[in-house]
Amino acid sequence: MMSRGNSKTVCLHGLTSSVVLDYNDTEAPVWRYWGARLQDEFDATSLPHYLNPAPPATLTTESALTLAPTYGAGWFQQPALRAHRHGQQFVQQWQRVTVEALAHNHLQFFLADDIARISLTMSLRLNAATDVLTISTTLNNHGHDALTVDCCASATLPLPAQARHVEAIHGIWANEFRVEREPLTRSTWRRDNNRGRTSHDNFPAAVVLCESATRHVGHVYGAQLNWSGNHTQSIERLDDGAYQWQLGEAFAPGEVILESATSITLASVSAAFSPHGLNGLAQSFHAALHQRLPWRDGAMPPRRVHFNTWEALYFAHSELELMTLATSAAELGVERFVLDDGWFHGRTNDRAGLGDWWVDRNKYPQGLMPLARHLEALGMSFGLWVEPEMVNPDSDLYRQHPDWVLSVDQRESILGRHQLVLNLALPEVSEYLFHQLNNLCSALPIAYLKWDMNRDLAMAASASTGRASYRAQVLALYQLLRRLNDAFPALEIESCASGGGRADAGILQFCHRVWTSDNNDAVSRVAIQRGAMRWLPPAVLGSHVGAAPSHTTGRSQSLDFRAAVALGGHFGCELDVRALDSVSRHTLHQWILLYKRLRHQLHHGVVWQGEAGDGVVWQAHGSTTSLVILIYRLQPTAQRYPPTMLLPMLAKTKRYLIERIDPREPIFDTTVAVKNHKCLFDDINGQGARLHGEWLANHGLTLPHLMAETAIVLTLNAISDDT
Ligand code: DGJ
């Protein structure tokens, strides 16, 4: 056995996880452990400083996984860093290492290579309340000449040999957040995104499940890159059967060349381990995100009921139409009216106008103030759609400043939805956009911006330097958003990118909600929202009652089902509510009242998801003693009797009162006359049923017969200790 000599060991402890690293003054810190919580009394100094026995035919170097493996000095797996100076100094080796405790559970490592004349500053902070480990990395060039950086992972994480599966998110427009499970094998697992925005295709995160982990139990690991641009991640099997997991930004060729005495701070990684399965992991990420959403004064206000004009009117804006729509929405209980695309200069369709951020006087002869006043009188706040990063060639802005777009000399620019991308890294562009947005938000009572972004980046170079500008674009976007946050602290911003194409934890440093998907079909939405909730809490997931048939799938579902699905996120309406008959208006109004009654628990409570089987899925919000449960039957049953639904999070010593609270007609199970037969839902529909937590956790709640594409909403409240 080999010893690392005079190594010191450091531990970070959360509620349910611990991290252990070894370090000494002359070698890179080695990952010793990331997993289930070790006891407080755990004595790190007693850890045996042994490494694996050296295999035959090996080099004299050891191959333990470090915080930042380097290239060319005995590590044969993927390194965290690939960099060189004009083809030389491609080998790096950390030889000078210091560690500083910045705060409780917060360490800063400094790793220097004095030959390559580079260093890494890496901060590791384990939040003791959420168990989220945040890793931030800065690469410094101390040399006299430029360092070309081909890649630099933000984090290299250890995974145990018991890791079996990885679940990542893939998708397309209108079908985002699809969870895809793959086995971990000897082949390196990898996901790349080069679309310039977070993308519908690959979400910058994954979950790794150890053997026998489920929704509710078992060891799971998760990590996400807090970034809204190009990204890459890989999981690679190591020689001892364990794995390394690297996440980082992806750079275009030549994009990162560090001049002498400069540095690059990379997007941070948030990672967590949970011994409580997928739900435990998601709860950690939800809690961590809630802690850092940019609310004024730090407190999330109640999430208002939205009305969005897009699928009701598209580009056919007229002041009169909008006012009648607003009145009709207000009568239903809507609290915020978001005027979507179509309000600004020259915007009669999606071929023109982007860039000209002043009101279209043909549609709004007196500007937007009359509409804003009308909303105010109705008690609704005003939201406005913008797409600041984009410009249509058919716009005054482009005619004046064709040089403001990202482009490559001598190559024809590629259009997406008839638009080009402004180079936000040019100070004059960011200044122009801030000025336009500042004008709008100062002149009108705008409480909310829906910030859209409707194309991938291609040929994203700065016209003046010819160098790739994907990364600079994201940083400049963040800077612009930060400036708006500072100038208008009460302004809420929604991140939209053709639906959920930019719905990541990076953008949520500056935004308050994401538009989860353009797909408002409730059946599709259940899967989309369930995937998104792996990472994002329901309070930030825009979720609207759309029209039937759905504009993106052509399918129809009942209004009750559409509303019950919207209840699972941040509730809104996106249909012409004037066209609803009086029964439907009454129904929608009842669901809006229910949402208002439940929203505190829906958005501040802990979330559990589960599957009852036979086409039934559920999500529960609250605490182990008080829950709201949304139950969705997606498929027609294939069983003679309905399934039972296990609720393993309930307190085993308590009895619960179960009540049905959705505004649908009661579902009575005794439609078939069976002698002496009484069904649970006969009581649940009526005065409520009382059942024991232990029974519900282990046997489960017996569900009623439900038609396909219907939902029920229950509350479960602990009523006594059963001692
Ligand atoms: C794409 C968004 O996802 C939609 O919700 C809508 O805002 C349109 N853009 C408007 O152009």
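qc> The chain has twelve helices and 40 strands.
qc> done
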